[in-house]
UniProtKB/TrEMBL annotation:
Organism, scientific name: Candidatus Endobugula sertula
Any Pfam family the entry gives: ACR_tran
Listed InterPro entries: AcrB_DN_DC_subdom, Acrflvin-R
Segments crossing the lipid bilayer: 12-29, 338-356, 363-383, 389-414, 435-454, 466-493, 526-546, 859-878, 885-905, 911-932, 960-980, 986-1009
GO cellular component, one term: plasma membrane
Keyword Repeat in annotation: no
Signal peptide positions (record): none
Name used for this protein in its record: Multidrug transporter AcrB
């Protein structure tokens, strides 16, 4: 009793399995986790260290270098990138994929990183801050809102935002709620130099009073009876008025001076804001919400929506909460689209099979397809594979492939029943004859996707679930093909009434024509092989005209406008320009929301969005439109407006990419020991990009030099006056930027008390010559001119970058929106590579080319093992050499249809197209295995070899054509999905052409390899 007979005879058990599969699949569909993109791990952490007063090069050598040296000792570290700016070091540490396959492994590495950094911090110079390791900056806030309130102060908006944050953190499944764009408050004490001099007061004494008045200091306790009573004196500062009324001095005559007598004391906002947000033209606070790992973002989004709706009555009138990005709703729509695609694929399969195989066969195979989907969903939930872009796409890709095995079994049983064989007998016979060849073909089809499942790197990790979903679905398709398919056929097909000898169904006219053509091809076998080889050579030659690519642009109705002013620009200037740009973009037809970030990027609301680091010269617009199809026409208009209206700025309008990547599309990366030489090399590369005329946003990632005013400290004069270089620096800081001299406590907030000069003394740079410097030795002030030898303005780097402790600069640009990056790179690459590099300097290509190259190399590292596994399976199945040779010679022919399809549709050869090519090879091998196995079987049963080759091919025509047709039609809906378009083109055109060639070239190659003569036919007397 084989497995088919067991399933048929134990139909009660079979029905139980069917019901469990349906219930399990439906339950999984309702409850499994849902995301927009796969949760690939961002293996990066930031190490941030302050070093106030140091230049970028001082920061790089005194802070960044020792920390990098310590971090580099960790074996798990892949790359270390650093950017050193004035007073700040920022090191990005990326961990090797193989060292951190899971987030749990990564957390252990972060602990080791903190220990390394803490140890290295002990050797940092005096004045350096404590390094901070941020390992959560890669969190994705899939729900993004903005708070605005016309007429409300930033402090009032902040109070509401914090109350909303507390409320949202109570929602089940919410992990973090971040608030960004909060304006920092301060208590300003503006002391005039003239008043200080007139009253003869000690500035240091005033600072001491302000710092001590609100300090938290233990006053001890006392035992009273049996009680221990705490002593806590009053008198802490509890208002601005209390600060104004601080007693500064009193003399013997009873004259007292309060702080308000010599200073303007007021509460306001710090001018040097790091990051500002606006939404639809109004100042805003960003609210980002992330879910716990592995959660269902759809359900979290619904719970958040309910919480917000329930709390609307608590929101002050006039304050608005705007929903900008709601991943839950987007994912819900994606799942609904998946259901529509599944239904469409089912209809396509059933209609196709009904047309060619009849209604009952269509019902059988359609039912098997549904069972396979349910079983796959249930297994995905068990092994924690959520629904997202990749897994849903994999299911749609697998829809056509799932029916291949069922078609072969159903076709065999149907033909047997039509020829008069009993249903149970033919079910046993067909399953027995095909079970192992179908398993081998299925395994080959699965292994074709294996490189993406086991390849290292973020790109492979992003698409890795494609392999696992296809593995699960195809294995179930094989299991159900040899179990439930015979059962459904047994239930639906009528029992044969006559023996096969008297009721053999005649061949159709199409089959007779195919058989005649195949016999002709076998007679002209070498001419056929030469013709196919010629077509193959032409296709290989034509492949050079296929455009390369990486990942396609997203179909989300969002696009981005990056805006750069020269390095060193004040954030107020950036804000002014951005407001003007914002008004223009908001006025374009089809734009329904404009979110503006000034000084940095927005919170990471999508996995494929990498926010820009803090920089006052940078602004960004996230623009939401009514329809994504209007974006391409809108982008050149905005680009032209930026270039014409803001000639001093650089702008870049771009769309999101459906996959890893980011940054500039074209990046020429120069490394070497001397920053000055690197600047020269980068300038040469940028000049080439400018001369091309087809590049925009041309820059280097060190940005422009910045101007610096240098008061020249007179060491001898300073020592005589008791004024150190630090005293000079503090005096300048106090006058212009302000100096924190105390803390004001308000509930859970600590508001700094900042002393600075009045506005008329602070904003005029000429007043720098009138600054009084306070001596930390004598306590007296002296004019700045007594301790300096004048002032000079110099230009220096505003930031410097290193990678793996080597200076590195990138010359960057992007193509205009209507051009592919590959076209621009092809023009500028030869010229840039012709730049003469001094010894010890290197050029590498990053950008899209570098990302694509790295991803393809990661994929290529696993392809040999995949092909080896497929070769072994084929050799094990046949136990000889010639049959596998026939099968493998067919695989390269897949390129014929692929090249035709990519050129006709003008689709670039993207990363997903490479995966499509791998899967196509698996499908071809699978079909070839079944055909060669059928030929061996018929020869083994005693049929003349020439007849066996022809009859085996004829018997496989309908299953092959049905399998190819259902696969092709099943992936056609993906042609309209930007992410899977290139893969669908490869499968549709490649499989169509390859299937037609397979039905001719495999019999021809089989006849050549086994030296089958045309005389080996029935009645010829030669059955060798």
């Amino acid at each position: 009793m084989n497995i088919a007979e067991f399933t048929i005879k134990n139909n009660v058990l079979s029905v139980i399995v069917i019901l469990l599969t349906i219930v399990g699949g439906w339950s999984a569909y309702q409850n499994m986790a849902r995301f927009e993109d796969p949760e690939f791990t961002i293996r990066q952490a930031l190490v941030i260290t302050s070093y106030p007063g140091a230049s970028p090069h001082e920061v790089a050598l005194e802070i960044t270098e020792p920390l990098e040296k310590a971090i580099q000792q960790m074996a798990e570290v892949d790359t270390i990138e650093s950017v050193s700016t004035t007073g700040k070091s920022e090191i990005t540490v990326e961990i090797k994929y193989e060292a951190s396959p899971t987030k749990a492994d990564l957390q252990l590495i972060w602990s080791r990183l903190r220990n390394k950094v803490n140890d290295a911090a002990l050797a940092l110079p005096p004045g350096a801050g404590t390094p901070y390791v941020a390992d959560d900056f890669g969190d994705v806030f899939g729900l993004l809102y903005f708070i605005t309130g016309n007429g409300y102060s930033p402090a009032e908006l902040k109070r509401y935002a914090k109350s909303l944050q507390s409320s949202l953190l109570q929602v089940e499944g919410v992990a973090r709620v971040t608030l960004e764009g909060l304006r920092k408050e301060a208590i300003f004490v503006e002391i005039s130099r003239q008043d200080i001099a007139t009253l003869g007061l000690s500035v240091s004494n005033i600072y001491h009073i302000l710092s001590q008045q609100n300090a938290v200091v233990s006053s001890g306790d006392v035992k009273i009876g049996n009680q221990r009573v705490v002593i806590d004196p009053t008198g802490s500062i509890d208002s601005v008025e209390a600060i104004q009324n601080l007693l500064i001095s009193a003399d013997n005559e009873g004259k007292v001076v309060f702080l308000k007598d010599i200073a303007r004391v007021w509460r306001g906002y710090q001018e040097l804001a790091e990051k500002l947000y606006r939404f639809n033209g109004e100042p805003a606070i960003a609210v980002g919400i992330s879910g716990v790992l592995g959660s269902n973002i759809v359900k979290i989004g619904q719970a958040v929506d309910k919480k917000i709706s329930d709390s609307e009555g608590l929101r002050p009138l006039g304050i608005e909460l705007h929903e900008f990005y709601h991943q839950g709703k987007i994912v819900d729509v994606s799942v609904q689209n998946f259901v529509v695609n599944v239904i469409a694929a089912l209809v396509i399969v059933i209609v196709t099979l009904f047309t060619f195989m009849g209604l009952k066969s269509a019902i059988v195979i359609g039912a098997i397809l549904l069972m396979t989907i349910f079983a796959t969903l249930a297994t995905m939930q068990i092994v924690d594979i959520p629904m997202h872009r990749i897994s849903l796409g994999a299911l749609i890709i697998a829809l056509g492939m799932m029916v291949d095995n069922a078609i072969v079994v159903t076709e065999g049983i149907l033909v047997g029943v039509q020829n008069g064989i009993k249903k149970l007998d033919i079910a046993n016979r067909i399953v027995k004859r095909t079970i192992w060849s179908l398993l081998g073909g299925t395994l080959v089809g699965i292994i074709a996707f294996a490189p993406i499942g086991f390849a290292p790197g973020s790109t492979a990790e992003y698409t890795g679930h494609l392999f696992w979903v296809i593995l699960i679905s195809l294995l179930f398709s094989w299991v159900f093909a040899v179990t439930l398919t015979p059962l459904f056929c047994f239930w639906l097909f009528k029992e044969a009434q006559q023996s096969s000898s008297t009721n053999e169904k005649p061949e159709s006219g199409l089959m007779q024509k195919y058989k005649g053509f195949l016999r002709f091809a076998l007679h002209q076998r070498f001419a056929v092989v030469a013709s196919v080889a010629g077509i193959f050579v032409v296709s290989v030659w034509g492949f050079q005209f296929v455009k390369p690519g990486f990942f396609p642009a997203s179909t989300t109705s969002l696009f981005v406008v990056d805006y750069w002013l020269p390095q060193g620009t004040d954030i107020s200037k950036t804000e002014h320009d951005i407001e003007q740009l914002e008004d223009f973009v908001a006025g374009l037809e089809g734009v329904n929301a404009v979110q503006t970030s000034i000084g940095a990027g927005a919170p990471r609301f999508m996995l494929v969005y990498a926010p820009e680091s803090t920089n006052a010269a940078y602004g960004q617009l996230l623009v939401r439109t009514d329809d994504y199809t209007i974006i391409d026409a809108m982008m050149p208009e905005i680009q032209a407006y930026i270039e014409n209206t803001f000639p001093q700025a650089q702008g870049k309008v771009w769309r999101f990419v459906l996959g890893p990547g980011g940054g500039s599309k074209i990046e020429a990366e120069f490394t070497g020991p001397d920053p000055n030489v690197l600047h020269d090399l980068a300038n040469q590369a940028q000049a080439i990009m400018v001369a091309d005329g087809g590049a925009l946003s041309i820059k280097d990632n060190w940005r422009q030099p910045i101007s610096v005013i240098e008061p020249v400290y007179a060491k001898s004069a300073g020592q005589r006056a008791g004024v150190s270089r630090e005293d000079l620096a503090l005096a300048l800081q106090t006058n212009f930027s302000g100096r924190t001299v105390g803390t004001y406590r308000e509930n859970d907030e600590l508001i700094p008390i900042i002393s600075r000069a009045p506005e008329q003394e602070r904003l005029d740079i000429d007043n720098i010559r009138n600054i009084q410097v306070l001596s930390s030795v004598t306590g007296r002030t002296v004019p700045i001119g007594q301790v300096t030898d004048g002032f000079r303005t110099i230009w220096r780097d505003g930031l410097v970058r290193r990678e793996d402790r080597i200076w590195k600069i990138k010359a960057q640009s992007d193509p205009y929106p209507n051009e592919l990056p590959a076209d621009l790179l092809a023009r500028v690459r030869p010229q840039i590579e012709a730049i003469e590099l001094p010894e010890a300097y290197q050029l590498e290509w990053g950008g899209e080319y570098g990302d694509s190259k790295e991803s393809n190399e990661n994929l290529a590292s696993t392809i040999p093992l995949g092909f080896l596994a497929m070769v072994l399976i084929v050799f094990i199945l046949f136990g000889s050499v010639r049959q596998p040779m026939v099968i493998w010679l067919v695989v390269p022919l897949a390129i014929i249809g692929v090249v035709i399809g990519l050129l006709i549709t003008a689709t670039p050869m993207e990363f997903m197209a490479i995966l499509g090519l791998l899967s196509l090879s698996g499908l071809l091998i699978k079909n070839a295995i079944v055909l060669v196995d059928q030929t061996d079987l018929e020869i083994g049963e005693g049929k003349p070899r020439f007849d066996a080759v022809v009859d085996a091919a004829v018997s496989r025509v309908r299953p092959f054509m049905m399998g190819a047709l259902t696969t092709v039609l099943g992936v056609i809906p993906l042609f309209f999905d930007a992410f899977f378009k290139s893969m669908s083109v490869v499968l549709v055109f490649g499989l169509t052409f390859a299937t037609l060639l397979t039905l001719v070239i495999i019999p021809v190659l089989y006849a050549i390899f086994f030296k089958i003569k045309s005389t080996e036919v029935e009645g010829a007397g030669n059955h060798v």
